[in-house]
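[Q] Does anyone have a clean structure-token version of this?
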Amino acid sequence: MLNSIKKLIKKKFTLQTPNTLFKGIENGKSNFDKSLIMKYGELNKDKTFYVIKRTPGTGLFSNVVFVLNHLLIANKYNFIPVVDMQNFKKIYNEKKLIKKNENAWNYFFENVSNYSLDEVYKSNKVIIVSDQFFHSFNYNMEDISFKSLIKKNIRIKKNFLDISKRFIKNRFGKRTLGVHFRGTSYKQSAGHPLPATPKQMIEMVKKILKKDKLDKIFIATEEKKYLEIFKKEFPLKIEYIKSAYRSNKNDAFKIYPRLNHRYKLGREVLIETILLSHCDSFIYLNSNVSSAAIGFNFNDNQNRYIIDNGMNSKNIIVAMFYWYYKKLLPNFLGGF
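[A] Here you go.
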């Protein structure tokens, strides 16, 4: 009975790994142990290919961090990395081709090496990695160990960079504040950072606007209610991507309200992250998006301000209520 209740709570209140729209290869001989080298053909006998896949994966930048960790391994052992999000489907894969691409990695990024999947799977030595995000892996894209890899291997498609440049030209001010404001399921997600409250975020924004002499605010948030609060509080300063999907529920991957919806979810978060990285100042909570914005580092002079509310409980039942409980408490009793 208790296990059934826990499963129900976990399904309803915590971050979930969404299902893919359709199935690809779900399992493979997986590890980076040299004893698990596979032979698919006779090509490239002098090379070892390292296939990075993650089925079904999670958020866009969680997957990017996963790839970065495996690129470190590939470099260490002199393997040639390739990312396969074509045969091993992800939550962003669409049923139809996106800009002639079936590989979901190539929806957003260039290949990490000069070899095609077709050639790799005709080659003599191939390693296919595990889907597991190992405890030894680094979660932070801003870490120094990833700096050169991001520049060399995580090359954003030019069309997203061009869209971002036009947005900056037409919508940013002389000095712009970037705000990444998580909501929805993040409030109940066990073992994740506790997000800011609207009160905390508004107070911080007002303080930094004045301190850094900023005239515009670019906000990235998945919660519709939070965007409305900011539009009401800062009507003449606020900018945001109008087409981005927002909801007051954790339903982005549960419904399909528009053509190519899952691709668009990835496109929107990527563009928002590029824009956050370009801002003159940045207010954020620890998350994969903020880590990516800092890791891309499109603005060397960016002033950064973190809101650190600590971590939510790892107990899924306690995590359901902990953020709301802390929100009600005054500061002197440990509240936000």
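[Q] Thanks! Anything notable?
[A] The mean pLDDT is 90.
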